[in-house]
């Protein structure tokens, strides 16, 4: 399910993973709005939702259908704003996912030129010492892209973090560590979220792509 803000290239980003899913036996249905979430009959046969839908809105019937499907065993997975910055009109969606984009602190204001690249900074994804098939064998790695500051709750199972440093132009006074990769159990369903993935080139990073692909399979019914 893809759409919303075009800056995250929802079509190109999801097409990157569709051959992988088909190789693993999935029959892929494409949607450009959350409307199918309200179709209980359709959703009962869905093993995995891959959502790349930044911002936008969701209707109550769509959200109720999404939550009911996940509770019944449908998996949900996504990356970056396509799952962690969707449907700002719904606190219930935030509760379902467990973590919400708050900010991506950017470069020194003196270096900004008014483009998306103003928010591209070097940072490290720090893997936690947990035994999980999504992150097994992957060491800490570095990226230059948006670093998500995430608001989350204690019911997320964090697999990796990233730490926002304190820089001379920032108003905060201590480092802030946010989840960068997490899972969440919801009823009989599984949810997977990775915050890296602003653009196709980030998703093509060997570490990011491996984590996302593993996360898709882990979350599926």
TrEMBL record:
Species in which this protein is naturally found: Nonomuraea rosea
Domain of life: Bacteria
InterPro entries xrefs: Class_I_gatase-like, ThuA-like
Domain ThuA-like: 4-219
The protein's name: ThuA domain-containing protein
Cross-referenced Pfam families: ThuA (PF06283)
